[in-house]
Amino acid sequence: MDIEALERLIKSRRSIRKWKKEMVPDGLLMKAIELGTWAPNGGNFQIWHFVVVKNPKVIEKMAQSVQSMTDKIASWPEAQKWPEETKRFQQNASFFRNAPVCIGVFTREYQSLADKVLLAREPSDKEAQQIFASRRSSPTSVQSVAAAVTTMLLVLHQMGLGAVWLAGPLTAKAEIEKILEVPSGTNLACLVAVGYPDESPQKDRKPVKEVAKFVD
Predict the structure, then answer these.
(1) Other beta carbons within 10 Å of 4
(2) Residue 182 sits in a domain of what CATH number?
(3) CA 10/CA 43 separation, integer angstroms
(4) Band of the pLDDT at 140, cuts 50, 70, 90?
(5) In a domain, 5, yes or no
(6) Which of 27, 35, 47, 108 sits 20 to 30 Å CA-CA off 138?
């Protein structure tokens, strides 16, 4: 693939939130996950785990748990400071119930040598506390899973499928982990809803000069 073809693939991918009812072949989903696992990851420990859900009753159960938790948050007095945002928050919380497939993306704990040393030293050393806090602000496990999901989204797009990366369902993290019966110590990172697209959203990006700079 030349750079022009790669650029077209990347720039034509969109987050899809409406799908046709057509089912997605298991082979395509497994290939997308397989290629996703070739993403860079911390220490090559490959601490990700994927649960592919095609049963509409299970997807609906997950969606209901997310909607219930969203409605609870929206009912709190603090949410009334942002009425329009709160309304959209509720309206958009569980649209993935209509997806033919929902992939649960999970991670397990990862500790590098630096993490182990800092964890042991943290109680007695303020500098270690600060360094450890910096590392926790963007954990290696999250970065690893994010790389895998990004790769998966591009592969799914190349296959003619439409997907969307969902972090919102983390409001019901414990409930979804229970529904999917994942092992202890396996933590939900996000959901990826997948199907054949039934929309063609168009969104631009900021000029690269606005978001990047060179330091000589």
Answers:
(1) 8
(2) 3.40.109.10
(3) 27
(4) confident
(5) no
(6) 35
Q: Alpha-carbon distance 181 to 61, whole Å? A: 13
Looking at the 3D structure of the chain, how many domains does it have?
1
Residue 166 lies in a domain: yes
List all residues 6 or more positions away from 189 whose beta carbon is below 8 Å from its beta carbon.
48, 105, 106, 107, 141, 142, 145, 146, 149
Which pLDDT does position 64 carry in this prediction? 98
**In whole angstroms, how far apart are CA 154 and each of 45, 49, 194?**
23, 19, 12
Tell me the whole-structure pTM to 2 decimals: 0.90
Mean pLDDT of 76-100: 96
Range(s) of the domain holding residue 192: 10-197
